[in-house]
Amino acid sequence: MAMHLASMVHGSARDREGQYQTQHSQLQHANYYQPQPPQPKRQYSTPTSAPQHSQAQPHTLDYQYQRHPQSPPSPPVEDQKPSLPSISSLLHIADADKATSESGNQSPRSQQSSPQPQPQTHHQENLSQSFRSTGSPSAASNHSASGSYYLGQPLNSMEPHSQRQHAPIAQGVKRDTMPPQSMSPYNPPTYVQSPYSASPGASSVTSYYSPEPQSYPNLGMYSQRPLPSNFQPQTMPLPLPSPSANGSNPWQHHHYISASSQSAFPQSQDRYICSTCNKAFSRPSSLRIHSHSHTGEKPYKCPQPGCGKAFSVRSNMKRHERGCHASSGATMTA
DNA sequence: CCCTCTGTTCAC
DNA sequence: GTGAACAGAGG
User: Fold this and answer.
1) Fewer beta carbons within 10 angstroms: which end of chain A, N or C?
2) Where are the domains positioned within chain A?
């Protein structure tokens, strides 16, 4: 797959000008599709789902979608983990004044490299990541091991259509307690690099697609649970506990579900839960697409010149083309 | 086995 | 006409 992506990335973007269907390539090309650049006005806003983004796509939430639930992008904070204070600084400190207790905070330079507002952020990050990982504190330190997405975005926008047909699980769980701030582990401040290809792991991981102009809200937004839809979410130690404070990890004792138990449940069940609306999906990709409804992301733009419409779902865009530009465009190769 | 992509279908 | 979810196909 990786190679596949890679190949796509290579010769795609321009190859299919008419198809603009290389999301993969998008990650490399900031302008994924926009055959026609001039589209100053917003086509429309989605009143239903994304109240806030009406103003602009650049959302507050970043969504770095990593394709591997189990190997999320190593957050920059981790990457650029506060390196130990340089010896010189230490010396300096010891020498001059320890009172400053520089050691207490991040090394000065680490801050510059990773604009981490406060250590807390890091904490919460781990927290949000870990709590669903498996409850294993160790997982917290390296959430990459866990396979969990979490869709936790500031928007409280509940699903407009409210769980269309199934709202199996999580319904009972109240995430509202989740403060937006704590929700986005990887906040924009964390990445200052280009919004595109924001995925920190882009370098190493085949961070395939990051079409949106704004970096992905990231996995922080999603939660993948190894649990069946019928499994009660009560185990979810979500919000409140501020374990980091006292060191006693709440997750520690709360066991999710044993492997054996897991096997008991069909894995095909909805395992990916949108933390925003608690809707469950059986596929990560579905969840990702779904997330667009919350974020208002519309990565797929109608290639037809003059038509600035954008869609969050590719097939919808295609359909739009067929329907609206069938006669005019016919750019569709297929 | 898991994932993404695409087309289809439903609901508004 | 469009948003959104599902299911099948393909990798």
Assistant:
1) C
2) 1-8+15-43+298-334, 62-77+116-297
